[in-house]
Amino acid sequence: MSAKNEMQDDVKITLVAGKLVRFIMSVAESQNTTISRGRLQKRAKEICEKEECGSVPFKEVLKKADRMLDDIYGYELKSLPPRSGTQDHTASKAQHYILLDKKKPIATLDELVFSHQVTNYMRTIQDGEYIGGKLNYETTNTLANRVGCDADIALKGLLCVVLCIVLFSKNHILQQELCEQLQTFGVPTDGSNIPIINMTFQDLLRLFEKQEYLIKEVERSGPELEVEIYRIGRRTQVEFPLESLVQLVMELIDVTDDQVPNLTQDIQRNIADSYAMTHNNDAANSSE
């Protein structure tokens, strides 16, 4: 292949990758779901047809898109391990991806954002009652003038609580037990809407399942009796790894640095096989 042809191919790959990055960012922002390899391939093909690029190797487009995400936004298109229960745990090609933020946290910025969020939230409390849902924020709740929104922050907080409950139940908890644990945090589980996020307990669990933070397994304990059990999903394994769980516990109980090794061991004993699949698939994913 001539140098001119190689340059033309690079231009095509860059063009398709750039438009694929827009698509990936849009999906991550609007849907907050995993992105399948097949969906990315289909989108790349549509871009090629629209731009009349001819045939462009998808593998190279994906690599270029991942580099763009890193260089421009500080994100990584991270492959997910296979779903629990599937047989192909050594597949060389990842089938689903999520966007991970690789930017190193800046303590002062994080504190500023948190302070801003708290201030905004406190403005929605009157006489001990949340009134945010009664206010008209359509024209003011934008990224330009408000960091986050009440529903997003509350949802993330609930997700953190739910994941910790499941993890410290040795990654195996009955729905009824999860329900009882959440009640101790003041979360209604009687079918009424949870304040701020305006969804029921069941809808919340279904959302976390759809986003692959949780896995629901149904077991039969009798001819007509089904038991619903929850475990963490593969997305949790990647977005909220063991190191992040240890860091969270450290911040909650104010652990000193010399206590970290023992704390990590204690946590590992209490969360059982929660991250086993991730560790087993590190080698396969790195060789992709």
TrEMBL record:
One of its GO terms (biological process) is DNA repair. InterPro entries: MAGE, MAGE_WH1, MAGE_WH2, MHD_dom. Gene3D superfamilies: MAGE homology domain, winged helix WH1 motif (1.10.10.1200), MAGE homology domain, winged helix WH2 motif (1.10.10.1210). GO terms for cellular component: nucleus. Residues 20-245 form the MAGE domain. This is MAGE domain-containing protein. The lineage of its organism: Eukaryota, Fungi, Dikarya, Ascomycota, Saccharomycotina.
